[in-house]
Amino acid sequence: MAARMSAFAAPAHFVCAFCGLLCDDLPFPGGDPDLQAACPKAAEGWAALREGGAPTVDGVSVDEATALRAAAAALARARRPLIGGLGGDVQMMRAALALADRCGARIAHAGQAAAQRNLFALQGGGGVATTLAEARNRADLVILVGGDATRRFPRLLERLFVPAPAFVEAGCRRLVLLGAERPRRLPAGVAVEPVDCGGLDLFDAVAALRGLCEGRLDARMAPAGLAALAAEMRTSRYGLLVWAAAEFDFAGADLLVGQLQQLLIGLNRETRWAGLPLAGSGGDLTANAVAAWQTGFALPLDFAGGEVAHDPLADQGDADLLLWLAALPGLPFPEWARGLPTVALAAPGLAPEGARIVLPVAVPGVHAGGHLVRSDGVVTLYAPAQLASPLPAAAQVLARIAAALEEAA
């Protein structure tokens, strides 16, 4: 792939679809400066790409028409098909929903468990969120909550702290860690201040902060670090809580997110605070946004019986066929699905091992243009194709499978 990139008449920059930030100012791979130095996540995404391959059925290379007929036949035979993965662009998700409706399938994103940590909290008590641009230009106190968000979003702090903000003095901005690890990537000149939570775990630390900020907990009864932080939060002109729900991989994570949102709601009675829940990687925000646009529900969805229903705690154990969509890298293939008959529409090198039918598809923003929803959920960016490729877009292949189903009916 590297040789092909170097021979390609590449632009200076590209829109990167390999994390939810959708940065549009990264250097093209193989150029100067180096992409690895600019963003390891983008470099990892490009490194995962492989040259195009032929469709296969039972491990044997076939032409596309044969693979399409085999995929359509498998869907027609299935009694409880599941369309999963959903790592792709807006167009792919629209085609996936149309196919799910056509064959009565269930449909869910591979990262749905993490997405629902934010969704359940929002459904339960509301929330306050902002955009990357407003956070960058207005926030004077930024608190990173739990884990290290720069693992999944390496350029997060660059997006928030570089360049200088428009409406606050750059030297007055502070970055605080609440139960979070020291970020792997920290812009030059940006200092981090860990909060001493006095031995409290993250659940109790957030609960204590909420009690302090709302005046229900005496500062003398709380760890000194949390008491000092609460006092600063109440006087901040524009504060920002940042978390990545995928980092909250423990029981009750949606309850923690709910506490963060209620903390924000309470603070807004006296000053200005907002949340920045980070998502969008692997097309999770894109998939959920398109589902909401077209059905009124977030994922997971069930189209059985000619109707659409939201099934937030879906049990996929009775699925007898998996249509796995992986046009973007980084999707975790579920352990429970190993051994399940699988049809994979995947970028070269991304098809799960053991898939019976594989149809290679283009990577949005690399082999084909596509629209994706950014991490803050307010912008849908178009990522143009960067490499000449014969690979079809996933939306095109899904439409061809639907047409083959119609012909066979």
Short descriptors:
disordered N terminus, globular, alpha/beta, nine-stranded mixed beta sheet
Question: How would you describe what is shown here?
Answer:
The chain is an alpha/beta fold. It contains 13 helices and 18 strands. The strands form four sheets. It has a nine-stranded mixed sheet with strand order 4-3-16-15-14-5-6-12-13. Strands 9-8-7-10-11 form a five-stranded parallel sheet, with helices on both faces. The protein has a two-stranded antiparallel sheet with strand order 1-2. β7 (141-147), α8 (156-161) and β8 form a beta-alpha-beta unit. α4 (64-77) crosses α13 and α9 (202-213) runs parallel beside α11. The longest helix has 15 residues, at 253-267. The two termini are 41 Å apart. Mean pLDDT is 93; it is low at 1-8.
Distance between the termini: 41 Å
Structural class: alpha/beta
Number of strands: 18
Helix content: 25-40%
Which value, in Å, is the CA radius of gyration?
A: 23 Å
> Going across the major beta sheet, what is the strand order?
4-3-16-15-14-5-6-12-13
Overall, the morphology is globular
Instruction: Tell me the number of helical segments per DSSP (H or I, 4 or more residues long).
Output: 13
Residue stretches low in confidence (pLDDT < 50, at least 5 long) are 1-8
Main sheet properties: 9 strands, mixed
Beta content comes to 15-25%
